[in-house]
Write a structure and sequence with these properties.
Blueprint: H1 3-13, H2 26-36, H3 42-50, E1 57-59, E2 62-64, H4 67-75, H5 79-82
Antiparallel strand pairs: 1-2
């Protein structure tokens, strides 16, 4: 059993959803979302964080994001901002 599998099993035993645990950096969020949707770019993730569309938890000097939050952001209508235009 790998380390991540062990961690996910412990969180399930405690009643937590493993997808809701903030443990991904900005780069890891991009890699995760890009594996699901090839249209996600590093810049779109960076801009979502800057616009506070993608909410993270500050730990030390960086923000950590959960898979649940990343998927929620990807499913919202953030495509209007990718072209630099308004949402209207």
């Amino acid at each position: 059993m790998s380390r991540t599998d062990d961690r996910e099993e412990r969180t399930r035993q405690l009643g937590y959803d493993p997808l809701s645990i903030p443990d991904m950096s900005e780069t890891e969020v991009y890699e995760f979302l890009h594996s699901l949707n090839r249209h996600i770019t590093p810049r779109s993730v960076r801009m979502a964080i800057a616009r506070k569309e993608l909410h993270g938890v500050r730990k030390g000097r960086k923000y950590l994001f959960s898979k649940h939050e990343a998927i929620r952001w990807m499913q919202t209508d953030s495509t209007a901002y990718d072209n630099g235009g308004d949402a209207a």
